[in-house]
From TrEMBL:
Keywords: Lyase, Metal-binding, Tetrahydrobiopterin biosynthesis, Zinc
Family that this chain belongs to: Belongs to the PTPS family.
Listed PROSITE patterns: PTPS_1 (PS00987)
Alphabetized PANTHER family for the sequence: 6-PYRUVOYL TETRAHYDROBIOPTERIN SYNTHASE, PYRUVOYL TETRAHYDROBIOPTERIN SYNTHASE
EC number: 4.2.3.12
Listed name of the protein: 6-pyruvoyltetrahydropterin synthase
Biased composition (Low complexity): 180-194
GO molecular function annotation: 6-pyruvoyltetrahydropterin synthase activity; metal ion binding
Disordered, as annotated region: 164-194
An example Gene Ontology CC term for this record: mitochondrion
InterPro entries per the UniProt record, alphabetical: 6-PTP_synth/QueD (IPR007115), 6-PTP_synth/QueD_sf (IPR038418), PTPS_Cys_AS (IPR022470)
Organism encoding this protein: Anopheles farauti
Length: 194
């Protein structure tokens, strides 16, 4: 058992070791906004299927959004700096991965990543995640990308991968699928305001 000093605290060296081994983990989030246009259209679907799946968002002339992106990093608070990450560094990473690559661009025509991939907000979140991971000094700190596409719709991506074949069919089979009337309409895309 460790001896305590007069104030009831463990000796300084022991206390420092305790602090270093159990440093608090903190989540740090920075927000950025960018504007971009796109057309929801999948090269893997027919023209008719694209119209049915994406509805008005499949308009050949496209449409635009003012996206709000929140990037969250997670990690221990550095004992010397008192920070998980310098916010100036996070700002610069976001500038490189988001603003320079997406702001005021046509996602489908100006961003090669979306040449053969539907530019849904889900895919934009994955693109931002992957772009940040490539440039961050400590990519293991990246925790979450949250994109607000509209005031009503947002997407969160934390880097998880879905392994094909590991569905929970037996659980889904037990639960009745409840639909609302809007699901029976033509537009089910995440891009709509519904």
């Amino acid at each position: 058992m460790t001896m305590a000093n007069e104030a009831g605290h463990p000796p300084a060296l022991e206390y420092e070791k305790l602090i270093m081994s159990a440093r608090p983990q903190v989540y740090l989030t920075r927000k950025e906004c960018f504007s971009a246009c796109h057309r929801l259209h999948s090269p893997f679907l027919s023209e008719e299927a694209n119209r049915q799946v994406y509805g008005k968002c499949n308009n050949p002339n496209g449409h635009g959004h003012n996206y709000t992106v929140e990037v969250t990093v997670r990690g221990p608070v550095d004992s010397k700096t008192g920070m998980v990450m310098n916010i100036t560094d996070l700002k610069e990473y976001m500038n490189q991965a988001i603003m320079k690559k997406l702001d005021h661009l046509n996602l489908d025509k100006d961003v090669p990543y979306f040449k053969n991939l539907a530019s849904t907000t889900e895919n934009v979140a994955i693109f931002i995640w992957d772009s940040l991971k490539l440039i961050m000094n400590k990519p293991e700190l990246l925790y979450e990308i949250k994109i607000y596409e509209t005031d009503k719709n947002s997407v969160i991506y934390r880097g998880e991968k879905h392994t094909v074949g590991h569905h929970h069919h037996h659980e889904a089979a037990k639960q009745p699928r409840v639909t609302n009337s809007s699901e029976n309409s033509s537009n089910l895309s995440s891009d709509s305001d519904g």
